[in-house]
Amino acid sequence: xxxxxxxxxxxxxxxxxxxxxxxxxxxxxxxxxxxxxxxxxxxxxxxxxxxxxxxxxxxxxxxxxxxxxxxxxxxxxxxxxxxxxxxxxxxxxxxxxxxxxxxxxxxxxxxxxxxxxxxxxxxxxxxxxxxxxxxxxxxxxxxxxxxxxxxxxxxxxxxxxxxxxxxxxxxxxxxxxxxxxxxxxxxxxxxxxxxxxxxxxxxxxxxxxxxxxxxxxxxxxxxxxxxxxxxxxxxxxxxxxxxxxxxxxxxxxxxxxxxxxxxxxxxxxxxxxxxxxxxxxxxxxxxxxxxxxxxxxxxxxxxxxxxxxxxxxxxxxxxxxxxxxxxxxxxxxxxxxxxxxxxxxxxxxxxxxxxxxxxxxxxxxxxxxxxxxxxxxxxxxxxxxxxxxxxxxxxxxxxxxxxxxxxxxxxxxxxxxxxxxxxxxxxxxxxxxxxxxxxxxxxxxxxxxxxxxxxxxxxxxxxxxxxxxxxxxxxxxxxxxxxxxxxxxxxxxxxxxxxxxxxxxxxxxxxxxxxxxxxxxxxxxxxxxxxxxxxxxxxxxxxxxxxxxxxxxxxxxxxxxxxxxxxxxxxxxxxxxxxxxxxxxxxxxxxxxxxxxxxxxxxxxxxxxxxxxxxxxxxxxxxxxxxxxxxxxxxxxxxxxxxxxxxxxxxxxxxxxxxxxx
Length: 662
Known about the structure:
The protein is of the alpha/beta class.
């Protein structure tokens, strides 16, 4: 649990070991001044009275003004020690001073370390480290690439966090999308830090942890925009932002060296469907007092202009619903409650009932209704099992499957496997979601299947059916202009996105030397005198397959890729105890060549395997030598003949064992 009213270390003492006032350099004086301001701010906010150290917005004063830039300071004269025991006292005082100096030097570095979210889209997680304190912002996962065969989830390598778990004071979540919360169950397997999230994000996290059996032991706390949390050396304030999900926030992270703004995913929506407009005034307030560094969402940094308001999609729904005589089926992201709210409102306007299908959408909508983020007109929602009793022109079905997921409700409809919904010529299907890179093929397959069944399919390229939840260039420039950071590091995006965002920052007047294009595991180190990229820590990705609790690893993934591309050759040998052939070899293949049409090649492989057995008999009973000889001979021959490298598996049976099993 984060500490409250955390007192300074021994370096805050005003007197030396000898009891006299000692000289201090400017950096120490500045650090003390900042700590005093922080403590005063905490006391004024009444943090000590709140569970988990959360101060409500109404009790929080304005953020403190940053300490002035360092100036040269004249050192006070050192006191003269008495003659008696002078040498001993001098040595003792010097040792104490050096030790305190070393601790201060270690603490006076703010280290910002992304473990995910850079040079990629997804898997967002960033560490902030100051002295013996670490906080984490977001803990996300991502979906596997096409070549990650059998992999269902990719999470960041959090080894550094596990190694330093005693330093971790808290995890702060910006919002509830999987790329920001998906790795929390894997983190909680290792240790159990406090987790701060807004109400909707917390509800999604609770559902996730309930499935993994970790909810009862998790330390969850709710945070609202304007609340302030103290976590070790950090003072963290939540700031309201707009996104494609309710309750998204940015964080202002107050450190002894200054304030860092971490935006999370955001856009500027002046007419949001739910919640208030992004708190631009708060960003400007921090900018007025001085922002040390800004870490900002780069997803749409290549797009000019502004991101359209979510309400424009609602207008499109109104137009598509009005006068339509067909049954309407709408698919969108299960977490986009703003979009779902507008579908329900559009249906109610024309007197249609709404049925929901898709487990993830049903659960998320139930949470949103419970928390008051979605309002449903009376008698609008019906159960999916009741749709046969409703006329097609009086029905809207909301479904999952906007990305062509093979287990989704829309996919099952497209291929005729849905229990309640059968697609036909009387259906209008609206796909209200953008295509996530990598999903284009599966989405196109679903669209084609739906059209082949006679349905009318309307998708984003034809109508304004989707708007992004991420800021475009003019919005990014506005945040840069409001915060006026000394240092800037673009985050959340591939390299092209980060570079485009860096270019915007440079055009906004931030010196190029103060803009840092980083990568996962790279340390951004900030001190009172400057900032630099300094060293790396272990960072990568862990691959999980189904319900497996262990990382699949690259070796397994490589084997799966080999099997998928080149197949497998199995050689079965029956040997006596001396290593002589008793039966076989027998060669079978799968995914390499069709046995009946490749008898010549299989005959050659059988002959080569027999030769390899005799060549590998030099060591009595050493089956590994024989296996290696067989693999070497067959591998060379197969590559020369086919330019493929299938997996070669040699199975050896001893004669007495083989005969006993006949």
